[in-house]
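--- STAGE predict ---
source: upstream dedup step, 1 unique chain passed
mode: sequence only
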Amino acid sequence: MSNQDQANYSCFKVEIEAGVAHIQLKRPEAMNTMTRPFWNELPAIVKDIDDNARARCIVISSTGKHFSAGMDLSVFTDDEGVTARQDADRWVAAESFRRFVHHLQETFSCLDKARMPVIVAIQGGCIGGAVDFISACDIRYATTDAFFQIQEINIGMTADVGTFPRLCKLIPEGWVRELAYAGRRLPAQRARDIGLVNEVFDTHEEVVAHALATAREIAGKSPLAVAGSKVMINYARDHSIADALDYIATWQTGMFSGPHMAEAFTAKAQKRDAVFPDLLPLKKKM
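--- STAGE serialize ---
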């Protein structure tokens, strides 16, 4: 990812070092709200890292007082925003709008689909669309002042970009219902208690440092084994135990790597870091 590419991002700063890609939201003066460019830039960044195997782990963090205040209000009011077209047949417009919602969902689904783990460090408010955002990540850490809020109910709409399908797999359903119906804030400590975040830290600096340290630790493992683990965890989440057992057996038939295991054992015996091959860039065209 070139410096020129990064200069063109209005919502993000991207740094890649030692196998870790660090994606930072960079609009603290606007509480990192999600403008229209946000929805185009994030999937482009993530898919570039994933497709080209530019990193072994991704960390997402933010800047300023709040992680993100969610969808920018301009997206609901400008001429090219998220509302369905008013000049078309009502039913035809509804079909088109459904497809557009699918497109928006892919902004965060690409995090779930990425071959490498995605760790997110959350400070302050994580509101509305930001809950959709962080729920698609593999690991969540937060600061003590962080809070989570399904804000959509407070503006008269139903969250639609991933909150409900994913939160219902992450925390008890009763909590999802309370947050969704009442629009209340879920504080960081309670979020940890119910399993939404793994750990809580006193400061923003500490939570980002921990996320990066965890990412570097993951980057030292076999990328193939890490990718396989993510595939299996996601598959188990979405399928029965029997189906998941069968799928891991099929996966191992093709991708069980004796040489990678031998390198891990040898490196441990020699008290050095193991050296594993990176994932290959994905072939996307003929």
